[in-house]
Amino acid sequence: MLLTADIGNTSITLGLFDNEALIEDFRLASDKDLSLEEYEVLLKSLFKNYDIKGCIISSVVEELNEKFTSAVYNVFKIKPLMLSAKINTGIKINMPNLDEVGADRIANAAGAYVLYNHPVIVIDFGTATTFDIVNKEGEFVGGVIAPGINLQLRTLNAFTSKLPRIEVAESRTAIGNNTVDAILSGVIRGCACMIDGLIEQCETELGTKAVIVATGGYAGFVAPYLKRNFDFINPTLTLEGLRHLYNINQLAAV
Description:
six-stranded mixed β-sheet; metal-binding; alpha/beta; five-stranded mixed β-sheet; 11 strands; ATP binding; Type III pantothenate kinase; pantothenate kinase activity
């Protein structure tokens, strides 16, 4: 079986594939303070009933790379494949600075490339809200990076003297008649307006309409306030992209 791991700034998402079927997925906190031994215990506990034969990792947290890859090796006796623009991505990355391209964004683009028609815009609602765009020629041409929903809520609390820390929730009205509703309107509905506007501008630059795919935990909070509905919501797109990338790199090595 194949273990896929997407290490983000907030969480680590793990997926277990039996051929093409995702049979388990887990979400852990991206905790830089956990020891190697503690990550080993977590992996042993989660996957004790499975025979892991391969692993691919995408990571945007440099501090966890060595610790997590070592944990995978120590527990399963396999060397993980680390995703970067230097391996076979199965898709042309049409960007000038390949070292700047985040591994998670490559996984999203690769997953979108094989699963959906082109052009396609993947909107990933994580710590950052990102657009990853594959044009009609099937090239990953870049995208957009903006503060994520939870990051906005935390920042409003951290950098003001009176605004409270609140959790992500439904925005009941555009005009908030209390502080919580006003914040939720600004962040949740504001994010929807940003997405609508950026989709329109990106499609203008692409010269055609695109397939719009949402992934990440906050997509459901934003979707009700969009003028342009998502064509697909795929919460496991990044993991599916990782599975595809592992397979094509294994084939290339044969």
